[in-house]
């Protein structure tokens, strides 16, 4: 199939070899075995445990007289690790000290709530990765989508049901438009999507910051950069009642995961996306429009990132601020890589990261440790996921078959 509306820009010289190298690195990460991914998480938690040990005051005090009474140091280490990982478990899974069933299961529901925007954004980034596009723009796409959805939520007066649908569509359209820009530039000019999407993140953040200074976006009688609360008719309904924060957006995210699976594995369009990612030259030779694929991939990724924004402004926070996106757009990159850009893997990785985020306050209160430990563990996961050979070397794992064939 051909597309005359978009000009194909063949890559040449160093740009072409650079693109091949980028796709090669990305393909190596995405083709890592499940065991390598699991071991990357284990290594991250182990190194995080070392940081917990070094940060514990009792361990430092007992290490001064380690050679005279080593048992004290080992006991302090065990106590520090036990307190830290117990706090993570009770903050992310179940609260074993709870007096009621609601308090007992609330940590896991909070984990799922935290995972919801990561599922949306991770799915979109995963589509891009499999199409050979390293999209770094989920942060900006999320913010723009959240801005459109929030405005529809607090400024429009629509009936219950219809209001939520229109607000969610607004989030998706806002993200899709912001994703169209780098996709179009990539297709027409060959502009590298990493550079363009990074710059658009800053443009989006500053655009939202400016909008929040306008009277039409500001909360009445307030000079703070925050919008009015979105109307109740535009909010995601709570799934388990007022005692929990888990909302309908989580089930919608799971539905989107199934939709992405069908798109990438069962549809002709998904086959074209995968072909463009595996070998753009071969895809062109087969009559596929790689340029059109780039544009559609970035628009779909942007729409899903915009839906991640809907989870924030229509579900969890119900207002728009410059901090609405937090670090979700960047965390979603790790989620997509950890899940190997497959929908099921992305959902599981998002739940893992949601658990880490949900356990932060408990880690700080119960174990007396800085919440930054959680961010360090996330950063370590990024490091190990980005270097599969390093993980295989640490755990003595065999190299993939295709690497053995090349070596032979």
Describe the structure.
This protein is about 70% helix and about 0% strand. The chain is mainly alpha-helical and about 400 residues long. The longest helix is centred in the first third of the chain and has 30 residues, at about 100-130. The protein starts with 12 loop residues before the first helix and ends with a helix.
What's this, in brief?
By secondary structure, the protein is mainly alpha-helical. The chain is built from 17 helices and no strands. The protein has helices at about 15-30, 35-55, 55-65, 70-90, 100-130, 140-155, 160-190, 195-210, 250-265, 270-280, 280-285, 290-315, 330-340, 345-365, 370-385, 390-395, 400-405.
| Share of β-strand residues | under 5%
Overall mean confidence score, pLDDT: 87
Number of strands: 0
Helix-strand string: HHHHHHHHHHHHHHHHH
Q: What's the total helix number?
A: 17
Low-pLDDT stretches = 1-16
Give the helix level as a range of percent.
Answer: over 70%
Major sheet attributes: none
Morphology: globular
Taking all Cα atoms into account, the compactness measure Rg is: 23 Å
Task: Name the descriptors.
408 residues; mainly alpha; 17 helices; 0% strand; disordered N terminus
Write the layout of secondary structure elements.
Blueprint: H1 13-30, H2 34-55, H3 57-63, H4 70-92, H5 101-130, H6 138-155, H7 162-189, H8 193-211, H9 248-266, H10 268-278, H11 280-285, H12 290-316, H13 328-338, H14 343-366, H15 372-385, H16 388-395, H17 401-407
Helix pairs in contact: 2-15, 2-16, 3-4, 4-14, 5-9, 5-10, 5-12, 5-13, 5-14, 6-7, 6-8, 6-12, 6-13, 7-8, 7-12, 9-10, 9-12, 9-14, 10-12, 13-14, 13-15, 14-15
């Amino acid at each position: 199939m051909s597309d005359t509306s978009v000009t194909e820009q063949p890559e040449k010289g160093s740009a072409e070899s650079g693109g091949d190298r980028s796709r090669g690195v990305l393909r190596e990460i995405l083709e890592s075995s499940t065991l390598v991914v699991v071991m990357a998480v284990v290594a991250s938690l182990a190194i995080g445990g070392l940081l917990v040990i070094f940060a514990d005051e009792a361990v430092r005090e007992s290490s001064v007289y380690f050679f005279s009474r080593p048992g004290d140091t080992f006991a302090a280490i065990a106590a520090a690790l036990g307190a830290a990982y117990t706090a993570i478990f009770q903050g992310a899974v179940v609260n074993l000290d709870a007096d009621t069933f609601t308090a007992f299961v609330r940590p896991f529901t909070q984990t799922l709530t935290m995972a919801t925007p990561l599922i949306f954004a991770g799915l979109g980034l995963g589509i891009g990765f499999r199409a050979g596009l390293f999209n770094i723009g989920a942060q900006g796409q999320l913010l723009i989508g959240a801005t459109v959805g929030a405005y529809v939520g607090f400024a429009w007066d629509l009936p219950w049901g219809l209001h939520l649908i229109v607000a969610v569509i607004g989030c998706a359209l806002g993200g899709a438009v912001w994703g169209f820009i780098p996709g179009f530039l990539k297709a027409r000019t060959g502009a590298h999507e990493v550079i363009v999407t990074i710059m658009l993140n800053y443009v989006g953040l500053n655009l939202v910051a400016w909008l929040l200074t306008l009277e039409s976006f500001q909360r009445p009688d307030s000079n703070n950069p925050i919008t009015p609360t979105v109307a109740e008719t535009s909010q995601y309904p709570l799934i388990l009642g007022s005692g929990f924060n888990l909302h309908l957006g989580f089930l919608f995210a799971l539905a989107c995961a199934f939709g992405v699976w069908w798109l990438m594995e069962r549809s002709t369009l998904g086959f074209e996306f995968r072909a463009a990612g595996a070998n753009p030259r071969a895809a062109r030779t087969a009559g596929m429009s790689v340029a059109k694929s780039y544009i559609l991939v970035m628009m779909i990724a942007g729409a899903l990132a915009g839906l991640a924004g809907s989870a924030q402004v229509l579900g969890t926070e119900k207002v728009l601020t410059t901090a609405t996106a937090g670090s979700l757009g960047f965390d979603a990159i790790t989620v997509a890589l950890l899940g190997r850009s497959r929908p099921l893997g992305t959902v599981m990785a998002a739940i893992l990261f949601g658990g880490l985020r949900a356990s932060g306050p408990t880690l700080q209160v119960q174990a007396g440790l800085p919440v930054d430990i959680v961010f360090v563990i996330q950063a370590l996961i990024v490091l190990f996921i980005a270097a599969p050979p390093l993980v295989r070397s640490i755990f003595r794992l065999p190299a993939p078959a295709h690497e053995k064939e090349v070596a032979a």
